[in-house]
Amino acid sequence: MAITLIVGALGVVFDTTVVSVALNDLAEDLGAPLATVQWVGTGYMLAVFVAIPLAGWAQSRLGGRRLWIAALGGFLAGSVLSALAWTATALIAFRLVQGFAGGIMMPLMYTLLMQAAKSRDIGRVMAVITVPTALGPILGPVLGGLILHLADWRWLFLVNIPFCLAGMWLARRDLPDDRPAPGRPRTRLDVVGLLLLCPGSAALLYGLSRVDGTADPTGARVLVPLLAGLVLVAGFAAWALTGAADPLVDVRMFRHRPVASSSALLFLGGISLFGSMMLLPLYFQLVRGGTPLDAGLLLIPQGAGALLARGLAGRYMDRVGPRAVALAAFAAVAVSTVPFAFVTASTSEILLMAALFVRGVALGAAMIAPMGAAFVGLAHAEIPDASMITRVAQQIGGAAGVAVLIVVLQRNIGAARTPAALAAGFDHAFWWSVALTACAVPLCLLLPGRTRPPAPANPGS
């Protein structure tokens, strides 16, 4: 079942990182300014955020297998249409289709496997299901660079076709038929919650994405969507607690300590972890003069370390609990980021790649522990809400981390573009990353010490 879900998810994971290296090619071929073409990535992520809260409701109406196959079909259609796009506007529209389907698939992948495992061996389950997110940073930029070297940008989307077709065939064969019984009452769509949460979370992401280092982070283009998003999300929380019979996302899940602590750690951890992942390729390109393909190749040790760490982290999480694993992992991420706070244009690449490998090992464990801890002690019916809450927390935290470190980098670089000035700017930004990661370490103490036996299954679920 895990292999089935991973095969289908690989297209979604690769698509995010592969397209990021092709913005200049897209701008030239489609005759559009780079500011417009950037919406190929931004629009995709906004569509993901709109779709995530709908995953739980859609699963309750269709069943997990049918929803997974339908989402894969939607992603396949969006990929083919994107490859056939004739203008930048058409490409952005078709990327919205891809993003909506991908937003359904990612939380659904976690939900289906955790429900099948009945919350047992959470560490081992998380080590398996997070393989796609480890492979994306390793192979995505390299695959994108190779495709652009051998063919045109349209193949960036056509490469998704075999993953989607194989994933749909495997899903039909391997996933259990869990469609709702014909006489079972249907879950009603929380329309009010939909109108509050989906645009609210998308507005938060949009506001954070507007922080590009050239604009004032306190300007209207950033603050207006951020404030609007916060108001809408707060309105949804009030509605879900007081007025909704079947809320789109059950925020009462925050009463569970594992869900609340894991969400907080994933948000704050995302600020430091994903923000520094943005800094690394920029350092290799701006300071060392490398190409996008060069940067992708140099980052392979970090992805390889993250991939190798997953099995070990999963076993130790089941043995000693997520709290101990998270403490050690986040501390190791902070320590292994310190060498980058001393980088210059001539720093040894071997030294940096060794530090990246260690950082990748720590990073893999740091993501598994809180993601798995969120499901400790949950009943079968509670797993979809936990999947959506933690997914949104991680993504918004990552976007916030990128925004914060872009501002720090830009303020320290200023107008200078000499290698020495650029290296000094990156030194400051990496020190911020170290400090933010260190701040996340104490939060690990809020995670469960040991994984408890799963809650008794609900006979009606």
From TrEMBL:
Membrane topology of the entry: Multi-pass membrane protein
One of the record's GO cellular component terms: plasma membrane
UniProt GO molecular function: transmembrane transporter activity
Domain Major facilitator superfamily (MFS) profile: 1-452
Lineage top rank: taxon: Bacteria
Principal localisation: membrane
Subcellular location: Cell membrane
Residues annotated as transmembrane: 36-55, 67-86, 92-113, 125-147, 153-171, 191-208, 220-242, 263-283, 295-313, 325-344, 350-376, 388-409, 429-447
Keyword vocabulary terms for this entry: Cell membrane, Membrane, Transmembrane, Transmembrane helix, Transport
This protein's record includes keyword Cell membrane: yes
Keyword Membrane found: yes
UniProt xrefs under PANTHER family: BLR6921 PROTEIN (PTHR42718:SF46), MAJOR FACILITATOR SUPERFAMILY MULTIDRUG TRANSPORTER MFSC (PTHR42718)
Protein name: DHA2 family efflux MFS transporter permease subunit
Organism: Actinomadura physcomitrii
